[in-house]
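Fig. S4 source data, part A: sequence.
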Amino acid sequence: MFRRIVSNLSFSPALVGQLGFYAKRLRREEATRRLGLIFTAMALVVQSLAVFSPPEAANAATPGQVGSSPRCEVDVVGPRASAFSVNDNKASVDFNVRGTKNCKVQVSVNAFYAPSLDGKPWSQQILFDRNTRIFDTPGRYTMRGSLPERSNESKGCFYQVDLTYGTHNVLPVLAYGHGRLDCGTATVASASCSSLEVIRQSDTKFTLKGRASTVGPAQIKAYSYTVKNAAGTTLLSKEMNSDAKSTQFEYNQTMPGTYKADLVVKSTVGQDTGPNCRTSFVVPAAATPSVACTNVTATIANRTQAYFTGSAQALNGARITGYTFIVRNSAGIEVNRTVVPGSGPTASTAAVNIPRDGNYTVQLVVQSSLGDKTDQTACVKPFTIAPPATCPYNPSLPASSPDCQPCPDNPDIWIKDERCKANVVYTKTSTNLTHGNMDASKTAARANDKLTYTLTVENKGLISEKVTIEEDLSDVLEYAKLVDQGGGDFNEQTKVLTWPAVTLGAGEKQSRTIAIQMMESIPVTNTGTGVPTSYDCKMANTYGNTVTVGVECPVQKVVVEQVVSELPHTGPRENMIFAAVLFTVVTYFYARSRQLGREVRLIRRNLNTGTI
């Protein structure tokens, strides 16, 4: 139009009115395009912010993802002065320990004499060394310490307890206390050997009898008898563990000569002997020299090792020169021969290894100045090497194997038998009560519908198993609310419903049922980006198997998300190119409007001056 008006203006000056009207139109168009250019520039700035600092999805994660760590708390109640007491010459103190989870409480105990009686500082008045114990469980405890003999009965006693706590380093003292104790009268404990008697039964048989006495709390522990010949060689050393005031035993000695017997009494306060516990006796000489094998014994240790002990008598000048122990199997074949030199009345071998199990005999042959002597009755004894014990549940294992154990709930089979295990199966079903108790996974849930979930756990194995039943309702509760917890504990943060752990026996099955109700208005919240299953018009959860219940979402949510999903996916580069093109186009039209307005003003001025 501008070109038509300008080209015809010289032939029809009346067109100047239309030129004025066109100039007004250009001014309004310029103002509109200037405003469009400003808004386009502002939109470009906003687009740049969105590109360089993109927004985060409002539904990018689900709640219940924050954990907590346990704290260590210690609460120690220190001792009280009234807790100190003395009983049976022992000082004791009571105290309570509470709240020691993940911590340890260290308790140290000292007892002191009263310092005012002899002027010494408390640090030098310790009755017994520091007693330290560690406690890691709550409870009420008592620590005791013996009080030793005191030189002055008028002295009192003080008792102190230091309590500290810590895991690695000993921390400063939290509490301590001391109180005066009535220590009682000190008693001197002692034990002594009273007498030793050698009672003759025959020329070669004697009875050794010892007696002891005690004072105070001392107790007899053992009697130690020793018999020596005239040369000082020990022929007998016998210790009898007993707390009685007297003990006795029979002693045989066939060799003529003079012998000395000693007795030592051992007690809780030490050991004692004396002139009344030393004596001597005489074995008269026999007329004819003789040597006799008197006994042989076999002791089995560690199943395959045998120790042999033998004894013999040499009378009237005869001499023993050695002992030979011969081992034969059940077929009479010799399998071992051990020679022990010696002239004493007894001899013992070191450990003799007999690897094969079976029945054996040991024969003792005594070498002497009168030749080899044995006795088929007294000096031939049978013994048995038992076969290695096997596991009754698995014969291929030794009985000592740590794997030799029965199945806990079925002692007829081995603990590592493939049948000895729990086979726990978890299953889950859902029912829509509003739609005629039909399978909820086969119909879409609507607003206000009521649904139930049944969780079943079954042990199909042969042993018991401890299981915990948990139900994660985080996806379900996006569209519904929990109306019946079925006896479980619900965590509002994690949206997890938990029941106490149960132990399922072999073949046992248990179930838990909960109920939910759909919301009155189904949310139109967009599907999550970080968690794609969030608000996706489905309620899915897993307990063994996964149950997915469809939700009848509002039309606008379905349509909007469907349209959005079909839109082309553009990134920052495409957005910036589109914004730059749009800005260029708007700038072009704004500049064109300004140029046309300037040209119209020039033409009107030339027309008014008569140059056209």
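Fig. S4 source data, part B ends here. The chain is about 15% helix and 40% strand.
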